[in-house]
Specification:
The chain contains 14 helices and 20 strands. By secondary structure, the protein is an alpha/beta fold. Strand 13 (241-247), helix 7 (253-265) and strand 14 (270-274) form a beta-alpha-beta unit.
Amino acid sequence: MSEQAVWIVDFGSQYTQLITKKIREVGHSSVIITVENAREKMEQGTLPQALILSGGPQSVFVDQGDYSFLFADPKLPILGICFGMQLIGQYYSGKVVRGTMGEYGPAKIKLTSQMSIPGLPANIQVWMSHSDHLLHAPENFSVVMESLNGLIAAIKSDDLPIMGLQFHPEVEHSDHGKEILAYFLEEVANLKKDWSRKAMLEDALAEVGQVGEEVVLCAFSGGVDSLVAATLAARILKDRLYCFFVNNGLLRPQDLDHIEALIKETNLNIEVIDASQTFLTKLAGVDDPEKKRKIIGNLFIEVFEQKVHQFEQERNIHFSHLLQGTLYPDVIESISPHGKGGKSATIKSHHNVGGLPERMKLKLLEPLRFLFKDEVRSLGRELGLRHSWVYRHPFPGPGIGIRVLGRVTPEYVAYVQQSDQILFEELHHFNLYDSVWQALTVMLPVKTVGVKGDARAYEEVICVRIVGSVDGMTADWSDLPKLFLKKVSNRITNEVKGITRVVYDITSKPPGTIEWE
């Protein structure tokens, strides 16, 4: 990724990931880089074709860091967003002032006579998130956009390839954000498009090609990430790639059907390890969600490691690499803000899928690690994978173990399996599956009185949860047709013995999460 055209210097904005997504969507390669990594590379003479300075929670009045290295080459195209624009304004002797009012949320801006972008109306709505602002533009910079309350919304150098935007063009709330980014990249920075499905595929295949003649192992889940990673890796490795799928007994009928279809219809070496009884036995009597997760994760390691060692002995082979479907958000979130120059808080540490122990001595092979979920799906289509495989809904590693609230028993697992299958079938019947991000059923740890066959029933409750989302970071509950919900409820209460009541979750994320546990 060091050869990517655009470097996005991360100053801690919550929208940094969206910048690189939007830039790629308009056809340009990009990579997120920490401040210190950028400093190190640029002081050694390595430069990108263009630089984007992200927003961030800090203020130029508090952050006294020396960022002059960013501006050392006057020919380097630079776009500053929010805090990034304030850095540009301060460096070139404009006047940045502390905010007393600030602008947060949607705002109207207008293009001045100094700016004309094809397709952009004179007035557009954008997303603001700042208090400090630029009071006076630097000398030889023009104010090219203004907010309707009179604040500077964008500046552009008269003689250098430099722009600054006080708003966030990368978020969906900003109209014409793509056009504005494309204007900078193609008109100001004069870059040629270099990002496409084909380019993504070539990069990923080149990554796999570095393995040479080694034999590679894959902990295969069947989800889009592992499927795309395995499919493209198999193009290079062929029969030197071995995929192991662990059936932990906490899967849905659609998951097992999916794996069976992949075994029949692809050239992947997939071996199913049936450890369902082992998992259910270990989970007996456990009701704490975190304990359940740890039991499932640790047992997966034990089962997987045992199978791998047995396989190596029987086949007289040695695995050198572990293939993972790690995506770019995982990599970004693992960058530590301490010692690495990152400005944002670490959300989680990136680790091997399933937490595979170091004693297995496997090198990581992560050909998707610079891609986002939508790009992986696009790559899957480029590889010729079925639409239904590539656009499968996400499914958590612990599976039904965290969709049975409270104690996990074979009976409760069956309730979720059967109700989830009904939901899955009706989503397809009503042509709704592709219109939602994720759909699931959860067994609640309560009983309710009902009437079945003119007799009193005191049975379990199933909750249906269906959400829409772009990336899973936030989500809204899906307002689906009443006829669909009625059909799902009727089928579950009639076909799943032991279920008397069905409820629908109308909680968004935040404050809730998509999963219940």
